[in-house]
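Annex B.
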Amino acid sequence: MERLQKVIAAAGVASRRKAETLISDGRVTVNGETVTEMGVKVSDRDQIEVNGVPLEQEKKRYFLFYKPRQVISAASDDKKRKTVVDFFPEVNERIYPIGRLDYNTSGLIILTNDGELANLLTHPRYQIEKSYIAKVTGIPTSEAQKTLRTGVRLEKRRTAAAKIKLLSSDKVHRTAQISVTIHEGMNHEVRDMLTAVGYPVEKLRRERYAFLTADGLVSGDSRPLQAQEVAALKKLARTGKIH
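Pseudouridine synthase: predicted structure tokens.
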């Protein structure tokens, strides 16, 4: 279910603000009934008309994308930098990324035009795990790893507990590879956590999103999500279980 004005905007009829004006002016009907109040939610099964013309709702599209470094996780960028949407020129629907990956972070991100899925996967109460591989300066001590596992005190908040695994270390170059699994996904969270315990990130990539992995994908590649994968993501967000 999505708000009526958002559905109208997604169909390309008008901007979100203009869609709200159309609703308040009584020019929108849902299943034959005129709607004038904001906040009404509709589904794909509802028949919507704007000025007497049936609304053609976009087909839902879902993609798993391996974002390269130095690409913006957005539908557009005012600085004219390359965005994740630029990798989908053949897609006519107005897809957008769910959540964000930093400009210099690579790895998995989902793009869709399904607002319900986007809300489920980004709302704080839905705990979707995301796993990262970080190359850090220095070799994290057992104490630092323990701090990461129990929560790190940042400037204004404390992070939730993370799953941590030291994958490899290079004593000559004083670097290490560490796996970090979180479910919060706040802006720059993994980088900030590792910096806070004294091990700044040199490279970072997201290798897993929920149960989705990068198998078969290289940087810049994408694949459509299968219907059962979309259903499993929604169920996982709502219940914490896939099956």
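The longest strand covers residues 201-209. The helical segments are 4-10, 16-24, 115-122, 142-150, 189-196, 227-239. Further annotation is deferred to the next reporting cycle.
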